[in-house]
Structure formats: C-alpha cells, structure tokens
C-alpha cells in the first residue's frame, strides 16, 4: 500500500520560482498535445489510443524535449488514464451503475494554465534533491533544489508530485511512499454503520451496543463563512472590473480547504481508532448515487451540503481500513431515514416510478427525533445508521437495542 505526505514549497528564490512555473506550463502544453492525439483518434476510429502509440506521436514535440523524459512520460500516462476512465464509465453506465448523460470527454487545459510535475524517481543528497529537467531547460532557467522531509528517510519512495496551486501562485509537493499494512486485533463479526449528514457529519451505530455522533457544525460554519466572505470579495472585484481569482480569494480558499482537509482527516482517524479499540472489523457507510446532483433541500442547505466533500471522507475511511485490515463496505441507503429500525420495517431500494409508494411504521416527529410505532423516541440519525447496517445484510445489527439509538455520544473534533 501507499502513503502520501503533502508539504508546501517555501523559500524558493525568484529564479527557482519562475523556473518551476515554466516547467508546469510545459507539462500543461504536453498534456494538451497528448489529449489532442487521443481525442482525434477517438473521433475518427471510435477507439482508445493506447499510451504507447500516443508516446510515439508526441515524443518529437518541443514541450516533450524541454521536459525531463520521466516527467513527460508521466504526463502522457495521465492523459491515457483520463481517457480510459471514459470507457470505464461507459461500461458502468451499460450496467446501470452510472448515467450516460453525465459522461464527458476530458477537456483541454486553459492556455495560460499549469499542470503538475510527476516524478517517478529523484536523487536525494544532503537532505534535498534537484527537480529533474532537460539540459536545454537547465541552461536557460537554472536548476531547482528542494528539501526532502527527514521523516521519509529510509522509506521506499514511489513518486513525487509538484502541484501548482491557484494559477501557480505557490506550489505544493506530495511524496508517495510504499508501506506495509498494519493489521489489528479485530473481530470481523462486529460492525459499525455510518450515516453521513450535515450538523452530524457522521452518525455511527455499532453492533457492540455503542453509538456516537461526529459534530459537523464547525465544518458547516467554515463553509458559510467562506461563502459570505468570498461573495463580499467578489462584489468588490466586480466593481473594479477585475477578472480571474484575486490573491485574497486564493488565500481565503486555501484556508478553507486546509481546514476541511484537516477536519476530515481527524474525523476518519477518530472513527478507525474507535473501531480498533472496540475490535470492530467491518465499516459500513451509507451512500446514494447522484445525491449531490439531484438534491433539493433548499438553497442554503443545498450549498452547505454540496460543498462538504463526503467522497473525500469515504476515501479516507477506505484507505485507513485497508491499512489496518478492516473491511470497508458501501451500502445504498434509500429509505433508511424513513423506515423504523425498532419495528423491523422492510427497507426497499428507491424506485423513480411515482406509482410505487411505501408505508412505514414510524415517522420523524421533529428535527433529529424519530418515533416508532410503539411510541419510543430515538435519535433520527441513529435510526438511519442502524437501518444502513440492517440493509447491508450484516447479521450483527439484529441485536442493536433501543438504548444504543436513544442517547448517542456527541464527539467534537478539535
């Protein structure tokens, strides 16, 4: 498996900064050159142009020659992966797992844009390394030396990526290292079901008789603050007839994204550590395909919900499960919030046919509170999470009691 460390590149001289921007510009140019070849082949032959064939068409291009060979080849491989995903989506759409109208061909990058530098190998010496480049480029722009993190010394380095951020105003660097899995002492018969939400970022119900909520209000507040401040800056920019992203907007977006990424990292870590502590071997998370595209819960709620990267949280949980030997499972969650877990309601799969209607034993009496047929009041999100576990066909959720769903522990991430 692979682990990634991300750092911001600091203390660049003006010459190094300009050289790094030019390398990213050349990488963008080569991406567009490679994409043009693949697109034209697709339009004429209705087939996929493999990387090997595309390489022979692009290797004489001036952008390819100015870049280091490794970096240029990795850029063309990204083109190949991007276009291959189109055919995978078409295959998924034929199986009913995706929608044909959502499939788009990869587009060209902006003329004044930039693209990452992907380096499959570097030479670390005296605590740093030089960015690979062609001799012709080095003669014109000079070399670029970057520090190497001490904590990665001795690790098996698989790839280094330099990412231009916000129109190459600054750069981030990602180190991808190979690591061995760290299996834990867990019981695969024990499981936890997770219902993702807004005020409650993740509602977790387990088969060991415990439940908790991860507070999502800080994430919601930061998103609201970001939208309000960005709208104010946008109005000033419109009055001054400024086009593009300003430095203040870029700085604002960076702060927001850093907070969101940190919050989701800590949330995923808390869930996995909790599972390891209680020897839970299966993580079940509820998902609804296309929920963000079709959501209709009001303008403000739509904005808050859509801007929270739930897919990123799911990927972090999946990666941590792979690292520690837990089983990760995604479960379709239609009607899990409406059905009554305590009354054992059957939970159907969503059918867009308007004539198909379902009746459930309980109902949500007010925000955050669900009432069963017997009059028992439980947390509405816990009811949904328990139904996700039940719908996954995991046998352990049959023994979850009313006490587990009534008073979940609220966890605030700091």
TrEMBL record:
GO BP, one annotated term: DNA recombination
Keywords: DNA recombination, DNA-binding, Transposition
GO molecular function: DNA binding
Residue ranges of domain Cas12f1-like TNB in the record: 312-388
UniProt cross-references to InterPro entries, sorted A to Z: Cas12f1-like_TNB, Transposase
Keyword Zinc part of the UniProt annotation: no
Domain of life per record: Bacteria
Pfam families: Cas12f1-like_TNB, OrfB_IS605
Probable transposase IS891/IS1136/IS1341 domain ranges (all copies): 175-286
Family the entry assigns: In the C-terminal section; belongs to the transposase 35 family.
Protein's recorded name: Transposase
Source species of the chain: Planktothrix tepida PCC 9214
